[in-house]
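Sequence design from tokenized structure. All designs in this work follow the same two-part layout: the structure record, then the generated sequence. An example of the structure record is given first.
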């Protein structure tokens, strides 16, 4: 069964840092690009970052560029999102997913990130 388990969120002050992790199972992780999205109440999911399957080529939203860094580990089927210089507008629930499942019901519970003083 396809599963995404996000962790690492929390409350942080503006300018602070957090590292999110996502453990996946139920498919051949190394074959697929991976994504991070975020969502605030009342809005749709917003793309944050992606990483290709083997070349580890990353892509970031304009808001994440220069502050966030995505990585993957094809040995333990995990992805991470290092977030620096966090801003209140980064407050959201963060989700990871893989390219075959973006339009499916296979989404994890997400991890809440709150940036506030």
């Amino acid at each position: 069964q396809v599963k995404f388990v996000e962790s690492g969120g929390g409350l942080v002050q503006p300018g602070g840092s957090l590292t999110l992790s996502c453990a996946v199972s139920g498919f051949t992780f190394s074959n697929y690009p991976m994504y991070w999205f975020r969502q605030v109440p009342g809005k749709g999911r917003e793309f944050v970052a992606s990483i290709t399957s083997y070349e580890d080529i990353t892509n970031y939203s304009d808001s994440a560029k220069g502050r966030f860094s995505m990585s993957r580990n094809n040995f333990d089927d995990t992805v991470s999102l290092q977030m620096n210089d966090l801003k209140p507008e980064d407050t959201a629930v963060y989700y990871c997913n893989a390219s075959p499942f973006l339009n499916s019901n296979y989404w994890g519970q997400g991890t809440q990130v709150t940036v506030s003083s």
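The two ends are 40 Å apart (CA to CA). We note this feature because it recurs in several other targets discussed in the main text.
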